[in-house]
Structure formats: C-alpha cells, structure tokens
Amino acid sequence: MTILVFDIETIPDVETGRKLHSIEGLSDEDTASALFALRRAKVGNDFLPHYLQKVVAISLVISNASNLKVWSLGDETSDEMELIQRFFAGIDKHTPTLVSWNGSGFDLPVLHYRALLHGIEASSYWEAGDNQQGFRWNNYLNRFHYRHLDLMDVLAGYQNKAFAPLDDIASMLGFPGKMGMSGSKVWANYLQGNLKGIRNYCETDVLNTYCVYLRFEQMRGIINNNEYRAALERLHEYLLSENTKPHLQEFLNNMPPL
Known about the structure:
Layout: E1 3-12, H1 14-21, H2 28-43, E2 53-63, E3 68-72, H3 80-94, E4 97-100, H4 103-118, H5 123-126, E5 148-150, H6 151-155, H7 166-172, H8 186-191, H9 195-219, H10 225-241, H11 246-253
Parallel strand pairs: 1-4, 4-5
Antiparallel strand pairs: 1-2, 2-3
C-alpha cells in the first residue's frame, strides 16, 4: 500500500479577484489588500474563499514498502497548473491512500476549484465506482471513506467544534510542530520572493502530518508498537540522509528520541 501525505500553500488569486470585483489599476499587493478588506466586511475575517486561493506549493510524503520520501512538486519556476497536474497524475499512477490534516475542509476543495479553472483531468481521483467497482465502497470523495484520510476530521469525530490545529497536536505528541513560518505568513513571504522558504515550510508540515498518521495507525491497531518504532526509525534514517537540506535537518533535530 502506498501512503501519500499532502499539504498545499496558497496565496490570493489576485487575477480572479480583479475580475470578480472590478478592481483595476492596483498592484498585486494592493489588490490582495482590497480583497481582504472586502472579505472582512462580508464575514468578519480576511480568509478568502477557496476559489480565490492560488496554489504555490504542494508538498508530499510518500511511503510504501520500497520508498520513503518528502518533496515539493515541480520547482520554484513551476506554475499552478503544473503543480496541480503533477498532483493528480501521481494519484492516477499510484492510487495511494491520501492523508491530510484538514484536507477535506481546505486543501482538496481548493484543488477542485483550481483544477476546474485550468481544465485538469483527474479521473482516478473523481472515480466513485462507475468505472472501477472497488471505488464504490472506498473512494477519495466520501467523507467517511479512508481512501482519503483527513486526520483532523477523523480525530474530531467529524465534529467541527472538536477540530484542532496540526501544530498543537504534533507538538502535544512530541513532534516538531510548525517550523519557521505559518500559513498566515505565506503571502508576505511570497511577495518577498521567498518561494523556497514556503516550499520548505510546506514540507515540514507534511512531515508533521505523517508523524501524527503513524501514531493514529498505532492507536487503531493497524501497526503494533514495534512497527510504529520501526517506521519512526526509518524516517530518522531518511532525514539523516537528506543532509544538504537544512529544514529537514532542523526537523530531525527536533524529533523525539527513539
């Protein structure tokens, strides 16, 4: 079985924002400020709707019997369309179990709208059993199926009032938690040209999610204590081998001792 843990980072879609709100003559930064102000006036906060979130990074942890790896799709020159195409192409190739933290509430709806915008095909992802019978009872779309496992949603018992931040839960379990950035700082870092920092931050987020996922699998008896420890040792060894990437070494240095 292949596990694919994913996380996205987004910025305001200023191009669509200009179109929808007839905003003209403003810079990207000022357009975003106008969109934030309009949103605050409407709902009391400046968190833009999903369809106005433009994807600038998608980071993954892949884990199966032969491979463990963390990386970000594309490179710093890749546009949004390429990142999303690569993501759904990976699902077509591996048919993995997707794992996320709040993927049902944020990441996947954003990817839906953005794939729709760019005309990106994602046949395996949208399969619900019409062409492949096995997807009828376990697909990526059903909230209560485990082909996509949204850890935040499941651990909260599907109760919104019980949702928790990844940073808090990862830190509670002794894992590194947020490192170097937060989602609220992504736009400012993007304006400063720090896309590398955004991608690195996204990678540490999926590593936290992967660690919480291993503890979840232990809790529900899918892996035993020895297998859980072996999985963490495997992660330690992988991170140790990535010794040219300071953000991964920092994550390793903040991991709990084995």
